[in-house]
Amino acid sequence: MTAETTLIILGASGDLTSRLLLPALGQLLAREPQRRVKLHGAGMDDWSDDAWRDTVRASFRTTDADAAFACLSGTTYTRADITRADELQAILDAAEGRPALYFAVPPGVAAAACEALEHVTLPAGTVLALEKPFGSDAESAARLNEVVAGLVPEDQIFRVDHFLGRSTVLNLLGVRFANRIIEPVWSADDIASIEIRYDESLGLEGRAGYYDRAGALTDMIQSHLLQVMAFVTMEPPSSLDERDLRDATGAVLRATAIWNDDPAASSRRARYTAGEVAGKHYPSYVDEPGVDPARDTETLAEIVVEVRNARWQGVPITLRSGKALGHLDAEVIVRFHPVRHLPIGFTGDPGPSVLRFALGPDTMALELNVNSGADPLHLERATLLAELGEGALKAYAEVLSGILDGDAMLSVRGDAAVDCWRIVQPVLDAWHAGKVPMDEYPAGVSSPAGWPQR
Ligand SMILES: NC(=O)C1=CN([C@@H]2O[C@H](COP(=O)(O)OP(=O)(O)OC[C@H]3O[C@@H](n4cnc5c(N)ncnc54)[C@H](OP(=O)(O)O)[C@@H]3O)[C@@H](O)[C@H]2O)C=CC1
Ligand SMILES: O=C1O[C@H](COP(=O)(O)O)[C@@H](O)[C@H](O)[C@H]1O
């Protein structure tokens, strides 16, 4: 059976491939066995086809891994240095159907490989899937955009952000645009503030080689959280197709800047010291293997931005993410203004309404004030909770499904990738200039001392 697509994973022996991509492919094939996909792995390791097949089969952690594996139209492996044009050409020449090149390699290697592709003949319909971080600042991202734009059209370029494949993130669109009661209150007139938080209990987990150069701001806020923010704040698109949705995302990111243009006052950073998270001991970040203390890398970052348009002007939007915190605390929190006038006679004041979207386990909660208790005029908080469950496909399976279908709707467009760097650059500069202190927190607490607690 001829494959419709050959998925070529470059960086086949890496962490992303074994931990996320291959299990996601297994899940996708178990669910959609009619897909005709050939899988090819390429990397620096000297593996045989059989060794690669064993890795693939072991990584297909679906309920029926063998059945999912049987769906593949073939699985092969080549040892290759993907920064070399001749080695890339050989891989592409052997592909069946449409090749989809997935760069599961460090960002510098991906950029070098794209430059090598300028000297390769690409089969029609070739798809390029690039992981984050896309570039290391606005200039390098723009340069990488130019390189890839010279290779294939924009709708064949997938700048992967797996948060866009998360069901709760997609649910933001459903709740906003499919409910007549929401959109009329979705602006600065009714919303006082927005917070997007992704506090993780995981620490460095052996990823110093990448993370120590990135830090929390680049690892999470520059990419994932700004994309989530765009879904929360975009204007309603006329359709969910790739162009309309990404136009809306691009427009809102273009309107976004650091609050008051004051990066020193609108950002905080901190780094974990030794402590315990759920019974597991973590050394101080600076004592983790592979960390260079001279780099001054933060493991917790917070910035405040604003969207400068008629809908959102004046609403502070806080983006925060960190590692080795007490527990996973991942939410989009929309806080409404208080009512204009509370009729005299009510007692109790639970505060304004709040809408929360938890990013795992996925729930949505609307906190309202009600007076249904023993004292009929006493206001109390009531929460309407919806358990959303997981989407049918986990985030990376959703990403792969878009790549295999050639639907770029859930990937980051080039202009948005550059804008995300433009938004955070003033903060990076202020931190680099020492204008914002590096706070500390023992691993396991929920926030550094002196930061808002909850
Ligand atoms: N791991 C994760 O959880 C996530 C990773 N990402 C992104 O995915 C990308 C890959 O990350 P990750 O898997 O963690 O990194 P790893 O370092 O674990 O894997 C990178 C792979 O690329 C291979 N490689 C390096 N240079 C070349 C080359 N010239 N030719 C061929 N292969 C090469 C490496 O081979 P060798 O080891 O032999 O050098 C290794 O197999 C990064 O951009 C990262 O930011 C994104 C989200 C999550
Ligand atoms: O891309 C990344 O995301 C993960 C968090 O996402 P999750 O879906 O695995 O919860 C983060 O831990 C990692 O540092 C970052 O590179």
Automatic annotation (TrEMBL):
Enzyme class name: oxidoreductase
EC code: 1.1.1.363, 1.1.1.49
Residue ranges of domain Glucose-6-phosphate dehydrogenase C-terminal in the record: 175-449
Keywords noted in UniProt: Carbohydrate metabolism, Glucose metabolism, NADP, Oxidoreductase
Keyword Oxidoreductase carried by entry: yes
UniProt-listed InterPro entries: G6P_DH (IPR001282), G6P_DH_C (IPR022675), G6P_DH_NAD-bd (IPR022674), NAD(P)-bd_dom_sf (IPR036291)
Glucose-6-phosphate dehydrogenase NAD-binding domain location: 8-171
SUPFAM superfamilies per the UniProt record, alphabetical: Glyceraldehyde-3-phosphate dehydrogenase-like, C-terminal domain, NAD(P)-binding Rossmann-fold domains
Pfam family name, one: G6PD_C
Pathway stated in the Swiss-Prot or TrEMBL entry: Carbohydrate degradation; pentose phosphate pathway; D-ribulose 5-phosphate from D-glucose 6-phosphate (oxidative stage): step 1/3
GO molecular function term, any single one: glucose-6-phosphate dehydrogenase activity
Protein name, UniProt field: Glucose-6-phosphate 1-dehydrogenase
